[in-house]
Specification:
alpha/beta, single chain, 6-stranded parallel sheet
């Protein structure tokens, strides 16, 4: 829903009711992940996508039908035993899509959800998608409050809502979207009731250190991948917003001191989704910076440099007291081996490594692999391993 928020917030503010289609479950090589959304206005305008084009026509017609009936439905699209291609999902995947009416009357909490997303306040929407009760019943959960109910008007609603609140807050803290199952009264040992939890956590952070041309390219590709990008350098003449227009913020501070401040700031935070790219290429900056970085919970810490630079850096870090376990977290030389040479190509190799770790890919050409194309999530960081090289070597 984040991707279509600009459109649907305007429709909602105008008092319109629209159809919102959300992927709530996937099987095999599904083209989009749970949470992908498409909205259809009362006038027939479309925003977003649930499948990259495969089933949009069918979902559009279903959304129009839901707008007429006012009733939420869940529909499965993809390969079936009776029909080789039920609606043209030629990738061989299967999608479960929830289509629901959204408007001031149907979803009174939507404005608060939209405001939280805009303010980067974590919020999750839990919606009944199968089982006893009403499909489409929803509860909105924040860290400190909740609204709505998964079983409105039912005597067991409080028990079910309380059980869901605990689980949803745990998923929200990890930025996870997916399904949870309960008994009718919230029993966790049963799976009668399926609840889709759509978490809207703040975007993951990408901290780029070193205000060089490679950093500008990494900031651009990081923003494209959905990271909140910060560029930091101690030199004010280089660390300017004009040189890094795609960055969300540009900070002029000694890198290791800034990172220490971020590590101690619970609100700004460094978590397993955070990626740290050290592109300073200068021992007086990168060694003290990596001392801090490798002792944070960041999921990815990569550093630019040749293999000789890397060996020298490791020696300096050992002298500084870092353990073998801490040093094993360092991805250096940074990026995947793509043969990259320019700043833009190098940024692509770094981005490829981030994507590889997020989904657990091999980094090999798909023509050389077999089995499923879309693997499950391997790590929480959205970032990680592989080999690469510095600007002075092939990538």
């Amino acid at each position: 829903m984040r991707d279509v928020l600009g459109d649907i917030a305007g429709w909602y503010a105008a008092g319109e009711t629209f159809g919102l289609a959300t992927v709530v479950n996937t099987f095999r090589s599904a083209p989009r992940q749970p949470g992908a959304a498409m909205a259809v206005s009362a006038a027939g305008e479309v925003a977003g996508s649930v499948s990259g084009g495969c089933v949009e026509g069918a979902v559009y017609e279903l959304a129009r039908s839901v707008l007429e009936s006012g009733q939420a439905v869940v529909r499965r699209y993809g390969v079936s035993d009776d029909d080789a291609f039920a609606v043209g999902l030629t990738c061989g995947g299967i999608l479960d899509v929830l289509v629901e009416p959204v408007g001031p009357a149907a979803f009174p909490e939507f404005a608060a959800v939209a405001a939280s997303i805009e303010a980067r306040e974590p919020v999750a929407v839990a919606t009944v998608v199968a089982g006893p009760g009403r499909v489409g019943a929803r509860r909105v959960v924040w860290a400190d409050r909740s609204a709505g109910s998964l079983a409105p008007g039912e005597p067991h609603a409080a028990r079910l809502d309380a059980a869901a609140d605990d689980d949803v807050r745990g998923m929200l803290a990890q930025g996870r979207t997916g399904q949870r199952h309960y008994g009718r009264e919230g029993e966790r040992r049963l799976d009668d009731l399926a609840v889709f939890v759509h978490s809207f956590a703040p975007p993951p952070r990408l901290l780029v250190f070193g205000a060089i041309d490679f950093a500008a390219a990494v900031a651009r590709v990081g923003a494209f991948l959905g990271y909140h990008v910060t560029v930091c350098d101690a030199r004010p003449v280089f660390a300017t917003a004009k040189r890094f227009p795609e960055a969300d913020e540009v900070v002029v501070k000694w890198p290791h001191r800034f990172l220490e401040e971020v590590r101690e700031d619970a609100a700004a935070g460094i978590d397993a989704r955070t990626a740290i790219c050290v592109l300073t290429h200068d021992p007086k900056f990168d060694v003290p910076l990596l001392e801090v970085a490798l002792r944070t919970p960041a999921g990815y810490v990569g550093a630019m440099g040749s293999r000789r630079t890397h060996r020298d850096r490791l020696a300096r870090l050992r002298e500084a007291g870092l353990t073998g376990t801490e040093l094993s977290r360092l991805r250096s030389p940074i990026g995947l081996d793509l043969g990259a040479r320019t700043p833009e190509e190098t940024a692509v190799s770094i981005a490829a490594e981030l994507v590889q770790f997020r989904w657990g890919g091999s980094g090999r050409p798909l023509t050389e692999t077999g089995g499923r194309i879309h693997a499950g999530v391997r790590g929480g960081a959205g970032t990680g391993g592989g080999t690469g090289a510095a600007p002075d070597g092939p990538r």
